[in-house]
Amino acid sequence: MSETPDLFVFGMGYSAGHYARTRAHAHGRVWASVRSREKRDRLRAQGFGAFALEDEADAQPLRDALARCARVLVSTPPVATAAGEAGDPTLAAFGEALRQAPALARIVYLSTVGVYGDHSGAWIDESAQPRPSNQRSLWRLAAEAHWLALGAARGAPAHVLRLAGIYGPGQNALVNLKAGTAKRIVKPGQVFNRIHVEDIARAIDAAFLVEGPGAAWNVSDDEPAPPQDVVAYAAQLLGVAPPPEIAFETAQLSPMARSFYGECKRVSNRAMKERLGVRLAYPTYREALRALLEAGEGR
């Protein structure tokens, strides 16, 4: 095995993709599973060892690569099974291979603070009782339990990172303002925590190294804030007028977007900082948006 552990990534979405691209130097080789041949070929052109789930010829090479990886990052969401029940596609397809993987030492599973449900704006930490309010979050909570159990049974601790609202390059209020899609929706008392994709990467790094049994960790910024304040601050940075305020009751939102406003909580990141040792690059949206602006976002 290489001097630094090989990493296998299930699902190269926004957060996992950022991690793989910015942390490749910390791993002997980065391998990944993706759905399509097209994405596989793009990743291979970037130097990753990638496999397409839709290509049967990739099935055995994928398992061979997985067998030599010490670290596994999982960012694939749970889905409905044919029976309409929760199912984790990665566990279903590769659970046994992971149980048998000889080099496996650590698993990190990317989840969401949505598993906590609504807490009426109260501060919560990892000791809070999860009470998911929608099926997506119920499935996530079930998937968390399965990954924690697999890690414990295998002797390769699994750490669950419960992510707040994700943003970063290409996915932020500056870009939305530039595109004309930003909305300043106001629901009195509503706040959300956020987390910059770079700080997610820092938390993944820490979870791969922390000693002790697997656990769940909140990964969030320091300041839960009203969503309309973030849009207004981004507009101020760009020197443009913010979009008009829209009352939540009259806002045109997708069912999924509307469901986010049905939950309100302030998520503590104390354990992440004190026990995982994560030092946030962007403690609040203000530092992050200023840095994104300097990098050319929204111009």
Description of the molecule:
With 299 residues, this protein is of the alpha/beta class. The chain has a domain at 7-169 and 194-221 and 267-281: 3-Layer(aba) Sandwich (Rossmann fold), CATH 3.40.50. The chain is built from eleven helices and 15 strands. The strands form five sheets. It has a seven-stranded parallel sheet with strand order 3-2-1-4-7-9-13, with helices on both faces. A two-stranded antiparallel sheet has the order 5-6. A two-stranded parallel ribbon has the order 8-15. Helix 2 links the parallel strand 2 and strand 3. Helix 1 (14-23) crosses helix 7 (197-209) and helix 4 packs parallel to helix 5. It is globular. The N and C termini lie far apart (45 Å). The mean pLDDT is 95.
What's this entry about, in short?
With 299 residues, the protein is an alpha/beta fold.
Total count of helical runs of at least 4 residues: 11
Major sheet size, sense and barrel closure: 7 strands, parallel
Which ranges are low-confidence, i.e. pLDDT below 50, for 5 or more consecutive residues? none
Output the structural class.
Answer: alpha/beta
Q: What's the CATH H-level superfamily name of the domain at 7-169 and 194-221 and 267-281?
A: NAD(P)-binding Rossmann-like Domain
Task: Tell me, briefly, the overall form.
Answer: globular
Task: Classify the beta-strand content into a percent band.
Answer: 15-25%
State the order of secondary-structure elements, H for helix, E for strand.
EHEHEHEEEHEEHEEHEEHEHEHEHH
Rounded to the nearest angstrom, the distance between the terminal CA atoms is: 45 Å
Give the name of the CATH architecture of the domain at 7-169 and 194-221 and 267-281: 3-Layer(aba) Sandwich
Whole-number radius of gyration?
20 Å
Would you report the number of β strands? 15
Strand order of the largest sheet: 3-2-1-4-7-9-13
Q: What is the CATH top level name of the domain at 7-169 and 194-221 and 267-281?
A: Alpha Beta
CATH topology of the domain at 7-169 and 194-221 and 267-281: Rossmann fold
Could you estimate the helical fraction of the residues in percent?
A: 25-40%
